[in-house]
Amino acid sequence: MSRLLRIDVAFDFICPWCLIGKRQLERALARLPAEQGNVQVDLAWHGVQLLPQLPAQGVPFAELYQQRLGSAEAVRLRQAQVQDAATAAGLDLDLQRIERMPNTANAHRLLRGAAQLGRAAQRDALLERLFEAYFLRGEDLGDVDTLLTIAATCGFEPAQLAACLRGDGSVFVADKPGLAGQGVPYFVFDRRLAVSGAQPAEVLLGAIEEILAQPLGRSA
């Protein structure tokens, strides 16, 4: 008999830790069949805007980070930390290619609209492609044409998604606004056990095993 495992993840496209956490979760799930038998995973991604106040056209990436961290050296150290964690997760980020910090409202609207139109595999491909567009290619996720082009590469018809997007930078209304109260990425397993941050695969796998060991309906 199969066991259904629900995983909810709060994320934002501009957060490198969210992409790193995604990779670590994938590693944990890849180890799951051998360790837990027949488990079906229902994985739901919930978009959260970390910087909803940004203008629709975004702001210069380097300038924003230096303002937030206080100095060019602080930025260098933070980016080195991110790169090290990304490498450990099997990612080769290219932070130097990022020119703008985008307003991510439309990127989240695009993914939500795509989830209503396409198959789960298409939605997952779009999620991955949006992350890669920003952190590997330096593409502007605040640009409508860029977003629709990305959607087309995942098999979506751009005209079907264009109506989801807005040009005024209005805030994206999250479907689970309280989910990311502890920051992103934020993982919730079976609505009972939460793990915050881009934890190693071993930590996420441990949380999954803990949940699967509990009788259904028991609170963590």
UniProtKB/TrEMBL annotation:
Gene3D superfamilies: Glutaredoxin. PANTHER family: GLUTATHIONE S-TRANSFERASE KAPPA (PTHR13887), THIOREDOXIN SUPERFAMILY PROTEIN (PTHR13887:SF41). This is DsbA family oxidoreductase. Residues 7-208 form the DSBA-like thioredoxin domain. It comes from the Bacteria. Pfam families: DSBA.
